[in-house]
Amino acid sequence: MSATFTATAAPYRVLPGFRLSLGFTVFYLTLIVLVPLSAVFLKTFTLSWDGFWAAVSSPRVLASYRLTFGAALVAGALNVVFGGIVAWVLVRYDFPGKRLVDALVDLPFALPTAVAGITLTALYSANGWFGRVLEGVLGLKVAFTPLGVVVALTFIGLPFVVRTVQPVLEEAERELEEAAASLGATALQTFGRVVFPAMLPSLLTGFALAFARATGEYGSVIFIAGNMPMVSEITPLFIITKLEQYDYAGATAIAVVMLAASFLMLLSINLLQAWARGEGGKVR
């Protein structure tokens, strides 16, 4: 008997090997992410505990936390609902001007945040196109209120949800929906049991991206917020104010609280997203 040996060719790699690629990745992330974050913590450590607590727990700062994170959560939730609908329409329907609408979704990415803030303020102020109707007819004031902050954060967060959900809908298997319909499922049942489980991980990802962007947003919010103490002051404004006063340790202390809260929130969302992926893969 003669043994036949088959030579297995090594997989072809366009980029260098694993060790070199991993080393470059770690070096780049350290240079771009870890070093700046470490500098924030090191500067904060120059404060005593009493000084740190005084910087991050004053009534105005606490009010800014509530507004910043609360508005970011509300804006993210709104974008999940309406951004999901926009993505659905762009993928599932053909209509005149579809490419124009698809391009408009990316406008908040390209538009400078200060320009967006000025534009939204002009639209929603008492004499603006929208504000004149909302305030004069409905008695709803948007500009220079927390509601204006939510509007600005919703504006800048919409593309994250749409562009995250859109590829998932494009790759979804229509045959599963047709099979559910052929078995007698209603449109609502088909969406709830077939479509929505497939969309859920991408919706959570879009929400996380929109929330993360909203918590640190400054340019588009600073004009429409009005910056009224205890009412419409956002946390990034306090960081800028501390820097202008050369209180670098106080600025980094507030930044550390923002960083820790955002990290915990994003970690929770990522864990929920992983659970949703697992649930979505199960056969029901």
TrEMBL record:
Which PROSITE patterns has this protein been placed in?
ABC_TM1
- Topological type in the membrane: Multi-pass membrane protein
Boundaries of each ABC transmembrane type-1 domain copy?
A: 65-269
Residue intervals passing through the bilayer: 20-42, 63-89, 109-130, 142-162, 191-211, 218-239, 251-272
Superkingdom:
Bacteria
Q: Can you name one GO molecular function term for this protein? A: ABC-type sulfate transporter activity
Any single GO CC term annotated in Swiss-Prot or TrEMBL for this entry: plasma membrane
Task: Give the matching SUPFAM superfamilies.
Answer: MetI-like
General function of this protein: Part of the ABC transporter complex CysAWTP (TC 3.A.1.6.1) involved in sulfate/thiosulfate import. Probably responsible for the translocation of the substrate across the membrane. Part of the ABC transporter complex (TC 3.A.1.6.1) involved in sulfate/thiosulfate import.
The subunit field of the Swiss-Prot or TrEMBL record says: The complex is composed of two ATP-binding proteins (CysA), two transmembrane proteins (CysT and CysW) and a solute-binding protein (CysP).
Q: What is this protein called?
A: Sulfate transport system permease protein CysT
The encoding gene? cysT
